[in-house]
Design brief:
This protein has 462 residues and is α/β, with parallel strands linked by helices. It has helices spanning 19-36, 49-56, 64-77, 94-100, 141-149, 156-166, 191-203, 212-221, 229-239, 241-245, 291-294, 296-304, 322-338, 345-357, 368-373, 381-384, 388-391, 395-432, and strands at 5-13, 41-46, 82-87, 111-119, 169-172, 175-179, 185-188, 224-225, 284-287, 308-311.
Length: 462
């Protein structure tokens, strides 16, 4: 290796090797040793004409085993800056013969080092590195063991409980499904998969940060199941930053009504600055869209006094505020998706509407999409985490099933209409119980109180 040192190495095979295989093993061992000591330009001399010819490309390696040796030798040679393999006759390769006979070949002025190594296996038979994952124990493990192998817990009480619970499940294609009530099969998910489903449905491409109960219902309708589905949905909504910042505040009183006294000079502590002036000019006026308020003369009059006119949205009594209620839900979804970037509401509107159309409504227990097209929509989470609908999909039957759903959808629409009417009648009866009739005659004076926040719009957090 150095200018005044010769390092020799001999190998003992622990396996059966042919002469040609032994020549390749010696070649590969020498190349490996040269790489370890940092050699960049390597010249090898071999007395095997076959090995030299195959590595240099002069001969073709027809034997499968020798072909593997040749490929490995070529791969190792490419790691050197320069590699040369020369053939020398056996009679001129005396050092190798002397080493094989373990003869004393030390010469004057040189030091000799002999390295002895054992080869347990051929160089082409490298041990494979396998990615072995430890089997995790989940809530599905006892049920799968019982259904697939019939094994249960040694505890009799636990074994009976597992056997009873397993009747609600079925295994299809190594995947566990739960027999549902609203749908035939619900795919059972582990903790990692359920986390993805929660995030995608709640705040994904078509999510609008719906509430915990609605989130659980939507996931169940997408045909997924795990034992703590509802609890996980409620906890996820509580931890969601946007849901907490844009939630509507409670309108119920904070505490019971109690008496107050006029002690401590409450009247005297009131600041004089808070008293309204009698002859101030309004800075803003809110009116409806009547011609008397929107006329040219009224507009010029307000502009002359620097009064800002604000017109109320058009009201449609015949709609019974249904459009306004739907808009309220859509605006709530836009607030949570936009945060401070209110100008992008038009870009986010399709995703919010899609979530609205694919979420079951409490009045009908159905999604608007199903009541319109006769079947449930394919939401993105069913693609990312295949549901029974996608995993067991048969294109040949799909067209027939869709047409059958259209024939049967009228019954579902009528049932939904009846449910909606019953809920509205119940809400009207509850509301009417608290009504205190107050009627006004023409000419009666009334005080109208209007409070407006500065720079407030429909997308401002409540």
């Amino acid at each position: 290796m150095g200018n005044n040192q010769t390092d020799w190495c001999d190998f003992h095979f622990e396996f059966k090797a042919s002469n040609n295989q032994a020549e390749y093993e010696a070649l590969l061992a020498g190349m490996k040793l040269a790489k370890e000591v940092g050699v960049r330009k390597h010249t090898v001399k071999s007395d095997s004409k076959l090995v030299t010819g195959q590595v240099n490309g002069d001969y073709q390696a027809k034997d499968p085993q020798l072909a593997k040796y040749r490929e490995q030798a070529a791969s190792t040679a490419s790691s050197f800056d320069k590699f040369t393999l020369l053939h020398v006759p056996r009679e001129k390769n005396e050092r190798a013969d002397l080493l094989a006979k373990l003869a004393n070949t030390q010469r004057r002025g040189q030091q000799k080092t002999v390295i002895h190594e054992k080869l347990d296996m051929p160089a082409i038979e490298r041990p494979e590195i396998l990615n072995i994952r430890n089997k995790k124990t989940t809530w599905m493990t006892p049920i799968l063991d019982y259904l697939q192998r019939g094994t249960t817990s040694e505890d009799l009480e636990k074994a009976l409980k597992i056997a009873k619970e397993a009747t609600k499940y079925i295994v299809l294609g190594q995947q566990l499904y739960r027999r549902g009530f609203s749908f035939p099969l619900l795919r059972c998910l582990e903790e990692e998969d359920s986390s993805y489903v929660l995030k995608e449905v709640h705040e994904g491409a078509c999510g609008t940060h719906i509430g915990g109960r609605a989130l659980a219902s939507k996931i169940a309708r997408a045909r997924y199941y795990w034992p703590t589905l509802k609890k996980d949905c409620m906890d996820y909504v509580k931890k969601c930053d946007k849901c907490q910042r844009f939630v509507e505040g409670h309108k119920a009183p904070l505490e019971n009504l109690h008496h107050t006294t006029l002690q401590n000079g409450w009247k005297q502590s009131r600041s004089r600055r808070s008293r309204p002036k009698e002859f101030d000019i309004l800075a803003e006026i809110v009116s409806d869209n009547g011609t008397q308020f929107a006329s040219k003369g009224t507009v010029e009059f307000c502009e002359g006094l620097k009064i800002k006119q604000v017109f109320m949205s058009v009201e449609h009594p015949q709609s019974n505020a249904q459009a306004e209620a739907a808009n309220k839900v859509i605006l709530r979804g836009l607030r949570k998706r936009l945060e401070e970037a209110k100008g992008r509401w038009a870009e986010e509107l399709p995703q919010v509407l899609w979530s609205y159309h694919t979420t079951p409504h409490s009045t009908t227990n159905e999604t608007p999409f199903r009541l319109t097209f006769g079947t449930e929509a394919m939401i993105p989470v069913k693609i990312g985490e295949p549901s029974p609908r996608t995993a067991l999909f048969e294109p040949s039957r799909n067209e027939k099933e869709l047409r059958a759903n259209l024939d049967l959808i009228q019954e579902a629409r009528e049932i939904a209409q009846i449910k909606e009417y019953v809920i509205k009648a119940r809400a009207a009866r509850r509301y009417n119980q608290k009504v205190i009739p107050r009627k006004f005659q023409t000419g009666d004076l009334v005080l109208k109180k209007i409070t407006m926040m500065p720079n407030k719009n429909k997308l401002t957090p409540l």
